[in-house]
Amino acid sequence: MNHKAIIITGGAGFIGSHVVRLFVNKYPEYKVINVDKLTYAGNLANLKDIEEKPNYRFVKADICDFDAMLSLMQEEKVDGIIHLAAESHVDRSIKDPFTFARTNVMGTLSLLQAAKLYWESLPEKYEGKRFYHISTDEVYGALKMDGSLFTEETKYQPHSPYSAAKASSDHFVRAYHDTYGMPTIVTNCSNNYGPYQFPEKLIPLFINNIRHRKPLPVYGKGENVRDWLYVEDHARAIDIIFHKGKTAETYNIGGFNEWKNIDIVKLLIATVDRLLGRPEGADDDLITYVTDRAGHDLRYAIDSRKLQKELGWEPSLQFEEGIEKTVRWYLDNQDWMDNVTSGDYQRYYDDMYKGR
Ligand code: NAD
Ligand code: DAU
User: Fold this and answer.
1) How far is it, in rounded angstroms, from Cα 96 to Cα 149?
2) DSSP assignment of 225-268, as one string?
3) C-alpha of residue 137 to centroid of ligand 2, in Å
4) Domain chopping of the chain, boundaries
5) For residue 92, which ligand has an atom nearest its CA?
6) Is there a contact between 198 and 340 (Cβ–Cβ < 8 Å)?
7) Each residue's pLDDT tens digit, 242-296
8) Fold of 5-193+228-256+295-317
């Protein structure tokens, strides 16, 4: 497939910025249009290194604005959409579910309907087009500690308002294929980590807190398990699937890399302390067990063999290596961290964590 103009939504966020960077650098012949509303999680500083490239355009817009989405698709003659824009933090969804339904469900629907109207107006219609929706493993619910994995056939059983909204958006995407014949793809990925992640999520929050010797709020007993993938490996998977994935298919993306939260916290403390030249064990007492997250899913673990077998993708980094790279990045980029934890960001962030 030789796409010429691609919209990437949510390109100023964590994963989106890595996807935009990869596409802008790897495909100079494409026009990459980053559509982002710049919520608290969107930050154009994530894309400083590519913002002047001739094949890149940034458009500040809300994906829920159907007219704006349709006009942009018509103006840029868009033939591919990689949809990442979303509200992405589970804790926020527990406090403010409406925003999650609006962006994740209605925003996805608005993009789908705009793409439908635009593509159906063309003589070639859906030929050579692709609507690729980025989703999460959280739609599958929670696993027991029994070695089972989420496959592409696992039934949806979301528990949080975030995962319920993502599940709903996945259903709409599949419905646009089944009802209108839109060439769609959905992928469900496990927890990402790496540079440019907003410090409300476990890994960047804890790296920053360890650096500043602030408490590390571990939910419950820290026994919950997540399957971690380095963000650039996710971006590579998205590139491969966008170009070679089969229409109407679902692919699970994950690193076969399960970790208990408490073990990650200990690894982060050891890594930060070593890199800052602090004595071993100096910050172990920062660990603070706090009230558990409501409806906290016990375990996520992805079976990504379909993607590995059919499209030849595999994760490139061992977790310890990825964590070392990630910790170094946050320690070397304190300006980035200070920027996103100050001012308006800081007010929202403080409200979120008040009382923990
Ligand atoms: P993020 O919160 O870092 O970034 C989201 C981006 O979307 C931000 O730039 C924000 O400004 C933008 N956005 C939000 N609402 C918008 C709207 N109404 N219109 C336009 N732009 C809007 O999120 P992330 O962690 O990079 O996740 C990106 C996508 O990947 C999401 O769809 C998420 O569900 C999915 N995902 C994330 C993970 C993970 O571990 N972070 C894992 C699997 C799947
Ligand atoms: O599985 C994919 C999902 O991973 C994505 O769809 C979400 O967008 C992304 O936010 C992430 O969700 P999690 O809820 O798993 O990520 P988070 O970093 O918020 O939390 C990871 C684990 O750490 C989880 O079990 C909760 C726990 N935690 C988190 C925070 C922020 C703590 O114990 N303390 C904390 O302060």
Assistant:
1) 30
2) EEEEEEHHHHHHHHHHHHHHPPTT-EEEE--S-EEEHHHHHHHH
3) 12
4) 5-193+228-256+295-317
5) 2
6) yes
7) 999 999 999 999 999 999 999 999 999 999 999 999 999 999 999 999 999 999 9
8) Rossmann fold (3.40.50)
